[in-house]
Amino acid sequence: AGGGGGPAVRDGAPPPTTPERVLFPPTFSVSEIKNKQRRHFMFLRWKQQQRKEKLANKRKRRKEREALGDKAPPKAIPKTIENQRVYDETTVDPNDEEVAFDEATDEFAPYFNRQTVPKILITTSDRPRGRTVRFCEQLSTVIPNSHVYYRRGLALKRIIPQCIARDFTDLIVINEDRKIPNGLVLSHLPDGPTAHFRMSSVRLRKEIKRKGKEPTEHVPEVILNNFTTRLGHSVGRMLACLFPHDPQFIGRQVATFHNQRDYIFFRFHRYIFKSEKKVGIQELGPRFTLKLRSLQKGTFDSKFGEYEWIHKRREMDTSRRKFHL
C-alpha cells in the first residue's frame, strides 16, 4: 500500500490511466506549509490546476455555443478595472457648450485654429548620459520641426525666455536618474501650462523586436485615446500641440498616446493596407510610458508656480478604480 494516504496499488496491477490531479482539502491553505520550497512548489501546482480548469470550462462553453448556434446567449462582458471605473464628475461631454467655449479660448486655441505652427525645443537635464542623448535624438525624428539642444548648467528660467524669443511653441525637458530617462517636463509657450510626467519603460529602437525601418520625415497622424475628464482633455490637447495639424498620409506613420488607468502609453507605428479588411503595422520606436505628476499654470516655475493639479498619492489613490485622466 502507498504511504501517502492514497489508494493502495497491488503489485503487477497496471498504473491508473487518469492524469494525476492535485486534490486539496476544502480548508487547505498553501500558506500553512512551513517549508518555503515545498510551499512554492505546491503553489505552482495549484496555479497550474486552476489554469487547466479554467481552460476546460472555456472549451465547454465554446462547444455549447457552437451547438446552440444562433440561439446562443450573448457573450458576457468580462469585468475589468477599466470598465468598473468610478464615475468622475469632470468627465467631458462632447456636446457641452461650456467645454467648447473653454477650448476656444484656452492656451492651445491658436494651434487648433491653425494660427501657429509647432516648433519644439528638446533638451535634457544637466550633463546627460548616452542613453538619454540617444532617446532625445530618436524623439526628434518622431516630432516634426523639433530641435535638440543640450543643457550645460543653464537654468530653465533662463532657457524659456530664449525659446519664446526664437518662436518655439513648446519646450520638452528629459530628466534622468542613474543614466536612465525617468522624467519629462512639457511646457507650452509662451503662456503655459507646464506638465510634469514620470517616465518609465523607455525602449530605444534597437531594443524593439521586429521593428521597421527608420521613420521618414513625413508628418505623422496623431491618435489620442481615452482622455475623458477635463484634466485628461487638457493633457491630450497639450500632447496634440506637439505635432503639425495637417498629417501627411502618404507617409503612413501614426503616433499614438493611449491613456489606460492614468498611464499614457506612447507608440510610433507605420501601417500598410494589405487588403480591404487587413492592415499590417510595424513599430518604429521609441516607446515610453508617462504618468502625470502635476499640471502647473504658466511656464515652469518651481518656487512660485500656481498648480492646477498635483498627484497626491495617499489622498487620491484610495481606490484602484478611481482615475483622473
Give the helix/strand layout.
Blueprint: H1 36-68, H2 97-105, H3 109-112, E1 120-124, H4 130-142, E2 146-148, H5 156-165, E3 170-177, E4 180-188, E5 194-203, E6 221-225, H6 230-240, E7 253-260, E8 263-273, E9 279-283, E10 287-296, E11 307-310, H7 313-316
Parallel strand pairs: 1-2, 1-3, 6-7
Antiparallel strand pairs: 3-4, 4-5, 5-10, 7-8, 8-9, 8-10, 10-11
Organism: Caloenas nicobarica (Nicobar pigeon)
GO molecular function: rRNA primary transcript binding
Keywords: Ribosome biogenesis, rRNA processing
Strand content: 15-25%
Average residue pLDDT: 86
**What's the CATH C level of the largest domain?**
Alpha Beta
Whole-angstrom Rg: 27 Å
For the secondary structure, the number of strands is 11
Class computed from helices, strands and strand pairing: alpha+beta
Q: Please write the string of helix (H) and strand (E) elements.
A: HHHEHEHEEEEHEEEEEH
CATH overall fold name of the largest domain: Rossmann fold
Unreliable residue runs = 1-9
CATH architecture of the largest domain: 3-Layer(aba) Sandwich
Distance between the termini: 64 Å
Please tally the helical runs, counting DSSP H or I stretches of 4 or more residues.
7
Tertiary shape: globular
Largest sheet: 11 strands, mixed
CATH superfamily of the largest domain, by name, is Brix domain
**Number of discrete domains:** 2
**Helix content range:** 25-40%
Domain Brix: 118-301
Region (Disordered): 1-24, 46-76
Subcellular location: Nucleus, Nucleolus
GO molecular function, one term: rRNA primary transcript binding
